[in-house]
Structure to design on (309 residues):
């Protein structure tokens, strides 16, 4: 299965943090496709299904064999009891549904069926077990075998796990036959902990890595570092580290977000960098950044100053 070196992360068009209009969300997906992006990643968690509905509608007119689509299992969406407020897990949507953790065999199949209905499609290419941090036993004992069965039947092309930590992902790679892992935020300019064990393990076993969260939720998204780190206010030492990295980038005529997008692909295990975007403007900006080559000397200088491993 071939994927583009950069993928479209659809959490933002699920109203991550703030509302995104229907037309703006559609334009973001259109801009990604037109920029040559052919991997699109979503999940039921993103906007309580809104991301899947919007992504499916935006891709409906595209040839199905022209792109790769990824979604996730592990959270079922069930009706909530009113009165409804707003979702409390970071998405600006009505809380008329609630998330229920379920990594059982039946839960996986039900989740995938409901995702297909929201997407308006009869198949997805990749299914990832989503955030099983506190559910190892059920995820490895039920969710993984259920997905492996679907893969063996040809229902999906590839299966894997997506998490914000490297340790459990490494355990999945060692103990199961996953095809890929999505590693969020742990192989970036500010955090290379994924390279300690997980990435070499994946390279040795032929497991592809989808690197996500490369801006660490915002701190690396602009050349003047500011904002959040892993969805919380950035600690002072990390903010100072990001500024030091930006200063080295300056010497090489490179912006901080340009370097953040390029860095993960230097590792042979990383197949794709998945970048979230909420508008066509963001997509176009990121595409322009990825089109600019980053001089090798930048990485050498960052390493020499102890800023990357």
């Amino acid at each position: 299965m071939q994927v583009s070196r950069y993928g479209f992360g659809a959490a933002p068009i699920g109203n991550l943090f703030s509302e995104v209009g229907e037309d703006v969300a559609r334009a973001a997906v259109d801009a990604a496709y037109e920029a040559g992006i052919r991997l699109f990643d979503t999940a039921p968690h993103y906007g309580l299904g809104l991301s899947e509905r919007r992504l499916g509608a935006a891709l409906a007119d595209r040839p199905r064999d022209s792109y790769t689509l990824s979604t996730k299992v592990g959270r079922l969406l069930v009706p909530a009891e009113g009165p409804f407020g707003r979702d409390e897990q970071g998405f600006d949507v009505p809380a008329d549904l609630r998330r229920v953790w379920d990594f059982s065999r039946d839960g996986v199949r039900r989740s995938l069926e409901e995702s297909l209905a929201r997407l308006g499609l009869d198949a997805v290419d990749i299914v990832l077990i989503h955030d099983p941090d506190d559910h190892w036993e059920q995820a490895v004992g039920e969710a993984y075998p259920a997905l492996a069965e679907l893969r063996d039947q040809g229902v999906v092309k590839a299966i894997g796990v997506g998490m914000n930590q490297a340790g459990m992902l490494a355990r999945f790679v060692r103990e199961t036959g996953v095809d890929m892992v999505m590693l969020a935020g742990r192989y970036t300019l500010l955090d290379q902990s994924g390279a300690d064990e997980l990435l070499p393990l994946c390279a040795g076993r032929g497991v592809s890595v989808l690197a996500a969260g490369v801006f660490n939720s915002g701190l690396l998204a602009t050349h003047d570092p500011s904002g959040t780190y892993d969805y919380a206010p950035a600690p002072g030492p990390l903010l100072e580290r990001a500024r030091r990295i930006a200063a080295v980038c300056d010497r090489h005529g490179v912006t901080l977000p340009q370097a953040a997008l390029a860095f993960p692909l230097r590792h042979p295990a990383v197949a794709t960098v998945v970048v979230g975007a909420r508008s066509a403007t963001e997509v176009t900006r990121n595409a322009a950044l990825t089109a600019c080559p980053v001089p090798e000397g930048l990485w050498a200088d960052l390493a020499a100053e102890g800023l990357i491993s």
Q: What stands out?
A: The two ends are 31 Å apart (CA to CA).
